[in-house]
Amino acid sequence: MPTPRHPQAAKPVSKDETDDISFEEALAELESLVERMESGELSLEESLASFEKGVALTRRCQAALDQAEQKVKVLTANTPEADTEPFESDL
């Protein structure tokens, strides 16, 4: 007879937990979470906890990208030869 799984209660992910990691670390962890969730082997509680952490990691990545974009804008603001153009997707 299989042993029932009793996952620990998911603790809320705080903003401080994701603020201290780099963009690359957050992205790698997010990719890992997605793989585990897509495997279908997580319980509902584990899936919800992973989703919550994924949201926090996504926000961390977006904040890092926004900050990098602002730095580029500041650095190129007074440089006429460094005109920026919107990126056109290949989609």
- Would you give the CATH topology of the domain at 15-77? Helix Hairpins
Structure classification? mainly alpha
Q: Tally of extended strands?
A: 0
Taking the sheet with the most strands, its summary is: none
- Amount of helix: 55-70%
Poorly predicted runs: 1-10
Radius of gyration: 19 Å
Which CATH class of the domain at 15-77? Mainly Alpha
State which percent range the strand residues make up. Answer: under 5%
Q: Give the N-terminus to C-terminus distance in angstroms.
A: 51 Å
Name given to the CATH architecture of the domain at 15-77: Orthogonal Bundle
| Global shape | elongated
Written as H for each helix and E for each strand, in order along the chain, the element string is HHH
Number of helices: 3
